[in-house]
Design goal:
The complex is a heterodimer of chains A (about 90) and B (about 80). Chain A has about 90 residues and is an all-alpha fold. Chain B contains three helices and no strands. With about 80 residues, chain B is an all-alpha fold. The C terminus of chain B is likely disordered. The chains are: A mainly alpha (about 90), B mainly alpha (about 80). Chains A and B meet through helix 1 and helix 2 of A and helix 1 and helix 2 of B.
């Protein structure tokens, strides 16, 4: 089981994968291989988000279920350092 | 035609190293028109690598590395002198 920050990083990375594949598919709508990859990441991302919210709390202020009491204010705000992961720059 | 293209691409992708991520010939060209080669899917970065690089397509990864040597005035004038 990944820790909170690792899981968040993976979710963001998978979201980016979906975004980029979607751009490719806009100009290549008949590319079955790309479409399969896109669909794979859509499904995987849903699972990861579910896993995150079950274990670590709300990912979104407007799109996540919350137990009582309201959970959104428990975590650091999204713009705070503690709410974010570090992405090491690729080596140069 | 479309199917042929796809089959060709699948064959290319099986032999990973031989996969060229864009079309290599552009047909029906006209003068005074600009063309962009059509991208073809080969390999992808892993999601994390893609996030770090800003693209999941290795063929589109092109980080800014300061001055472009080929188009700098210095290089052009040097080339001019050699000619």
């Amino acid at each position: 089981m990944k820790n909170k920050s690792e899981l968040l990083k993976q979710i963001v990375a998978f979201e980016f994968m979906k975004d980029d594949l979607a751009l490719y598919l806009n100009t290549h709508p008949m590319d079955k291989e790309a479409l399969a990859k896109y669909n794979y990441y859509v499904t995987e991302t849903k699972g990861l988000k579910e896993c995150y919210e079950m274990n670590y709390g709300m990912l979104s202020e407007h799109d996540s279920l919350s137990p009582y009491p309201w959970q959104w204010i428990n975590d650091p705000w999204p713009w705070e350092n503690d709410a974010n992961f570090n992405l090491e720059k690729e080596g140069k | 035609m479309e199917q042929n293209e796809n089959r060709k691409k699948t064959a290319q992708c099986k032999a990973m190293s031989k996969c060229i991520p864009h079309e290599t010939a552009i047909g029906n060209v006209r003068l005074a028109m600009a063309y962009v080669p059509y991208q073809k899917l080969c390999t992808l970065f892993t999601p994390i690598e893609g996030l770090k690089r800003g693209t999941v397509f290795p063929e589109l990864y092109s980080p800014y590395e300061g001055e472009d040597k080929k188009s700098s005035p210095y290089e052009l004038s040097k080339k001019g002198r050699n000619l």
